[in-house]
Amino acid sequence: MMIKALLLDLDGTLIDSERIPRMAWQKAAEHFGFTADETFLNQLTGMTKQTAQGLVKKVLPENVDVEAFQAYRHQIMAQILKEQGIKAKKGARELLLKARHENVECIVVTSSYTVSVGEKLAAAGLADLIEKIVCGDEVMHGKPAPDIYLLAMERYHLNKDECIVIEDSKNGLLSAKQAEIKSILVPDLISPDAEMTACAEVVLNDLTAVLKYLFKNQISAVRGDDPIVEIIDQTSLSFDQSK
């Protein structure tokens, strides 16, 4: 497969930010007298705000005003961001630099809305390495629908065989699968289940492993739910050197 572009999810993949909305959800739920359990939080991961809204309404108690809850949750999230900040995930900067050196485009494809993406990339120290972005508020249907990956390919004149997706969430993997793009799973807060591993070409521990897998032809990797670390001879991917 001739790879011209990496389509990278943002939250939980390039930057360590998934924990922040989860913490805000849990604190806000406690404040309003209910529980945001792991199953619910896992469902939200990777979704756009619009797509998640239906799930939110289902779990809120009848006496809780949705707008009041969301306002409080955003207040908590802003406070956590101010106190803790956002860091790049292990290997993120190195992967982006190597891709640039090899003339492989790096495109962020994220459920986050446009207004927040630049700030997140800047806070994580990655803004200078990302020029091309597709955001959740640019499509009618967010992940797990394929729309956002289809838009990325259309906007940047790519076809599915020229791309590989890097994701951490089930919704992101399903989105890539429906767009018929091969993907790499780098788990974050959610342990991969059978459906997630079935969607991915390979499951790797972090972005340092992704760099080695893509650019050095061999890598220590964990496939599926097998805890055994393997050395994988990677021969199915190649890069366009004509650019």
Automatic annotation (TrEMBL):
Alphabetized InterPro entries for the sequence: HAD-like_sf, HAD-SF_hydro_IA, HAD_2, HAD_sf, PGP-like_dom2
Highest rank taxon of the organism: Bacteria
One annotated GO molecular function: hydrolase activity
A Pfam family this chain is assigned to: HAD_2
Keyword Lyase: no
Keyword terms, alphabetized: Hydrolase
Protein name: HAD superfamily hydrolase (TIGR01509 family)
Higher taxonomy: Bacteria, Bacillati, Bacillota, Erysipelotrichia, Erysipelotrichales
